[in-house]
Predict the structure.
Amino acid sequence: MGLFFVNYHLKTTDNQAVETHLQELVSRRACVSPPKHGWVTVFDEASDSHDSAEIDRLARELSHRLQTVLIAFVVHDSQVFAYYLFDQGDLIDEYNSAPDYLSHDLPEEARLRLAGQPAVWRVIASRNHRRRRAGHPWLAQVFYLR
């Protein structure tokens, strides 16, 4: 049996706002990291079930409520790597390293969608660079919810 995990990375330095929204959105435990280089990471216990609807719900809602970019990373059984990139609640890119892993009859349009769009990342990276230069204080505390 391989590794299974999900984590969320939000383009913000306000981990307390992330914590506040998570308290309304999660049903189990979650961990919020201190900000680093303009990003905060969330580990949500319920997401580790790999329920795609739950991952989409939490990612979309956090991105929307905080009006920011969010990247959800998924590793499934050490066989599949996937990401979902949201901007202000909208899914703008997704990738799956093995789209046939769970379903062998994916339509071609789904395969193309799951191939990822590298050009989208250039926009996100350039935004991050500008924010990092502005500078934000780091918080040295990790928050555990529930």
About this structure: Residues 129-146 have pLDDT under 50 and may be disordered. The chain has one domain: 5-141. The chain is about 35% helix and 25% strand.
